[in-house]
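Progress narrative, Year 2. Work on ArsR family transcriptional regulator from Amycolatopsis suaedae advanced from sequence curation to structure prediction during this period.
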Amino acid sequence: MPTATDVYQAIADPTRRTILDLLAEGDRSAGTLAESFRMSRPAVSQHLKVLREAGLVSEQRSGRQRIYHLEPDGLAEVARWLSYYQRFWHARFAALGEYLDAQETDE
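Result:
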């Protein structure tokens, strides 16, 4: 079972985040994913391995191809962690709104 740390390490890399974004649009083969990057296919495969081990993607073999699928439940720990900080964002946005409203009345 992957740990939360594995997930954070997996999403720390921008290439892996892009792979997750692509898979959020639909399942894709490793070859199709590799076409989106300026790196070798084996390098993309290594990124996919990290994502798979973190529980963020799954693979299914279809003949000689491997089709990758996003496993959004793997991001649940990250969502829980971020939800704690959302309360700070809401307070800041509210303060910004009040500031902007005050600027409009001053003009």
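Helices lie at 4-11, 14-24, 30-34, 41-53, 76-106. The chain has a mean pLDDT of 90.
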